[in-house]
Amino acid sequence: MLKKLIILLITIISIQLFAFEIGERLTFKIKYGIIRAGEATLQINSHIYKDSTECYIIESLAKTNSFFDNIYKVRDKIESIWDKNKLVTRRFTKKLQEGSYRQYRIHFYYPEQNFTIYTKFGRKTKKFKEKRMDIPTNTQDILSAMYYLRLQEFAVGDTLTINVTSDGINYPADVIVHRKEKIETIFGDRKCFIVEPIIEGEAIFKQTGEIYIWLTADEYKIPVKMSSKIVFGSFKAILIDAENVPYKKK
Fold first, then answer.
1. What DSSP string describes 187-207?
2. CB 121 within 8 A of CB 105
3. CB atoms within 10 A of CB 45
4. Residue 235, SS3?
5. C-alpha dihedral over 166, 64, 98, 146, to 10 degrees?
6. I need a surface site. Which of 41, 142, 206, 207 has the fewest CB within 10 A?
7. Among candidates 118, 52, 38, which has minimal Cα distance to 85?
8. C-alpha pair distances (Å), 219 with each of 57, 81, 99, 150
9. Strands 35-49 and 89-98
């Protein structure tokens, strides 16, 4: 029994070590239709949070270029503080600026007590309004959910359910694994899973329709492409650079 437990622990640790590395940084070009409109980055680093809790700090930045700013300016910053050992969220901050739309929200998570303090900034009052709400066990935010997904084993036809708390609501987010597809990437031609997360509220962009993500069909599950409809048309995010990943650029 002890031997089986040790093997299981080694397997779990190995998956976590090899799915992504500290310092991984992914850069995407953003295309609205056929127009290159800006860039977005996803990066993960180490962070010590509050009472010396070892965490990952995951950050997503998205911005349009100077030309597209005149059409639809985007300046989004999303940050997740994600517990390294328990793989649960400790804090989630989201600041969105997309055209005339603004959003500034913070969740403080207390997973041991199964509650969160949700704070929402009011543009008119210039103050944060907060509420306490219960959360389910093993809760993720919309950003940590991506990295949590990368640690899972799945196959075409599977639907994974991840507990998500974001924008003041709890919901079980289904991730549908639709199919595999070989596409051209910066690492050469790669087979990828096409997955569809069913997200409530806004994610990296204020999307209005389905969002699809292409993940490399291997143990790393690196996101190489995303597409979705948003308030202003539709967008694609295509990986153009990667640091601290196991593959070399082609």
1. TEEEEEEEEEE--SS--SS-E
2. yes
3. 14
4. strand
5. -10
6. 41
7. 52
8. 21, 23, 38, 8
9. unpaired
Residue type for position 157 = G
Tokens of 162: 């991840």
Residue type, 66: S
Place of tokens 């940590």: 144
Per-residue pLDDT for the chain (250 aa), expressed as one digit of tens each? 444 433 333 344 444 445 788 999 999 999 888 889 999 999 999 999 988 899 999 999 999 999 999 988 989 999 999 999 999 999 999 999 988 889 999 999 999 999 999 999 887 788 889 999 999 999 999 999 999 999 999 999 999 999 999 889 999 999 999 999 999 999 999 999 999 998 765 544 444 468 899 999 999 999 999 998 765 567 899 999 999 999 988 8
| Amino acid in the structure at residue 170 | N
Q: How is residue 241 written in tokens?
A: 């650079």
